[in-house]
Amino acid sequence: MKKIKNIWSLFFILFSFISIVFLYIAYLRYNAILETNKTLTSSYNKILYNSLDTTLSQNEVLLDTLAQELLSFELLKNKENSRELLQKALENSKYVIGFGLTDTKGNLLVTSANIDIKKTPNILTNDAVRTTFEKALKSDRMVVGRTYFFPPLNSWVIPVRKAVRDHEGNILGVMIAGLVNNKQNNIFNGISLDDERTILLVHDLDKNNQYYRMYFSNKHDSDYKKMYENPLKKTTYAVLMENLQKEFHISSIEEIKDGKIYYTSTKLPNHKSIFLSISYNQKYKIWVVVSQKQAFVNTVVFDNLLSIFTIYFFIIISFVLFFRTIARKEKEKEAELIYKVNHDTLTGHYNRDYIGNDTAVIEGLKDKEFEVIFLDIDNFKNINDRFGHHIGDKVLVGLSGKLNKFFNEEDIIIRHGGDEFIVLSFSKLDHNELIELISTPCAIDELEFRLGVSMGISKYPYDSVNLDELFSMADIAMHEAKKVRNSYKYFNQEMYQKSMENSDIEHQLRHALDNDEFYMMYQPQISSDMQIYGVEALIRWENKKLGFVPPDKFISVAEDNGMILKIGEWVINRSLRDIKEIWEETGHKFHISLNISVIQFMEAGFLEVLLDAISEIGIDKTYVTLEITESLAIEEFNYVIPLLNKVRENGIEISLDDFGTGYSSLSILNKLPISEIKIDKQFVDGVLKNTENSLIKTIFSIGKNFSFKIVCEGTETAAQVEVLKEHGCDIFQGYHFSKPLKKDQLIRYIKDFYDRR
Question: What distance in Å separates the CA atoms of residue 131 and residue 127, rounded to the nearest whole number?
Answer without folding.
Answer: 7
